[in-house]
Amino acid sequence: MRTVMRNVVCTVSLLLTISASAGICDTLSTEIKPAFPNIAVLTLKNSEGISAGDAALITDRLNAELFKTGRVNLLERDQIQDILKEQGFQGSGVCTDEACLVEMGQILGVREIVTGSLGRLGSLIIINLRAIDVGTGQITKMVSQDIPGKLEDVIYYLPNIARKLVGLKPTAVIKPETAERITEDKKPVPEELKPSKNTCMLVVKTIPESATVVLNGITVGKTPFTDNTLIPGQYTLKVSYPRYEEHSESFDLAAGHTKIVARNLVYKYGLISILSKPEGAQVSLNQKKVGVTPYYTDTITPGEYTLNLSLEGYVPVNGKITIHKHSSDTFSYMLFSEAKLDSVKAHKRKMNKGKRNARRIIFGLLAAGAWGTGVYYNTQVKKHNDNAQAFYNEYKELNPEQQGIPIPPEKFTETYENAEHEKKLAEDNKLIRNILYGSAGLFTFFFVLSVPF
């Protein structure tokens, strides 16, 4: 069959996929920002009291919090496992020393690799993490956190752990169920902030902080927000922050009571990086030019886009990409020069010519062999038919009913059985001959077909 050579464009999956959220405006940004370091977070090693499944879930959540910092590009955990499995690594647990981790990081193609453990010691959950520079083999960051309480409380500490890993200052830890603010010194909320018996109190806390608080249509401040002088009644609260979804709710406040609202605001949009080798390719999304590779934007609306990459002297890339909310994706492409493509085409034509000649020889030999063998079995059919006829003639001559001459019964029976045996051999060879002739016809058809193709 004719092999149609189309544009050769290899899409290489880059080892960057950030799991969490990034959101921003409604239009595509044409600004090209510095590339973030590529890191891989290995699944945390679980110690006694922590299941492997829980460790994997907490690793995924840590990836999400690292993404929210906006300081790194992350390789997806499932992709890490697939790559390591292909290279003979069965998981992070078999590789703990720096040399092995550096080798693993080189395989994954990242700048830093983060590894660590999650375990229980009495009433504490203990997380130990270290980041290793793949280029130098040195430990660049070490983060340890002792967490009192249940395993699910770990998720409230992960934002600060992620911030420490990327070199940001930690913030307060907020538990949404109670909106309890846990500070480093664990000081209680001052007594003077409590409402009087005739007023009510509203506390609003968010991640990220500095979100705008609007109460009954009036902007009253930024988070963390506290007001203990509110008059009892019905209130409508709106909390907004650029690039995040607005939070809105209504409630009643009673005298002497405190209402606490604690929310992790949700990013609206996606984030993408588009890379090419070589760099400098024009990037177009939905037929609109947005920049050149390496291209980065954190202001892309979730949805499906038509992607075009073009660079003079290279074969253009055309395809579709899907951007998801709460996610970050990196798309990497290998561009092929037109000269190289022409060379590839010439090589392909040469290879195809060799394959065509091989097909012609094979089908020619098969057809000739089938025809020749079929002719042989055809002669065998004629031979056995002649032998059968000769035995039948002898049988008629020896038939006592026809000749009236006494013949030994065994002689009479042997002659008839020989005739029947030769007849059966003729039929068997006839079947084989027909199969061979059919195969020869089929091979001849493919031989003729291989001549022009």
List its traits:
alpha+beta; six-stranded mixed sheet; Rossmann fold; 24 strands; Immunoglobulin-like; single chain; 453 residues; five-stranded mixed sheet; disordered N terminus
Please outline what is shown here.
The protein has 453 residues and is α+β, with helices and mostly antiparallel strands. It has helices spanning 52-68, 77-86, 98-108, 154-165, 338-398, 400-403, 409-450, and strands at 10-11, 17-19, 38-41, 45-46, 73-75, 112-121, 124-133, 139-148, 173-175, 180-182, 200-207, 212-215, 218-222, 225-230, 233-240, 247-253, 258-264, 270-277, 282-285, 288-292, 295-300, 303-310, 317-323, 327-334.
In this structure, how is the largest beta sheet organized?
6 strands, mixed
Low-confidence stretches: 1-35, 177-187
Report the CATH C-level class of the largest domain.
Alpha Beta
User: How many domains is the backbone divided into?
Assistant: 3
Oligomer: single chain
SS-derived structural category: alpha+beta
CATH homologous superfamily descriptor of the largest domain: TolB, N-terminal domain
Give the overall silhouette: elongated
How widely separated are the two ends?
6 Å
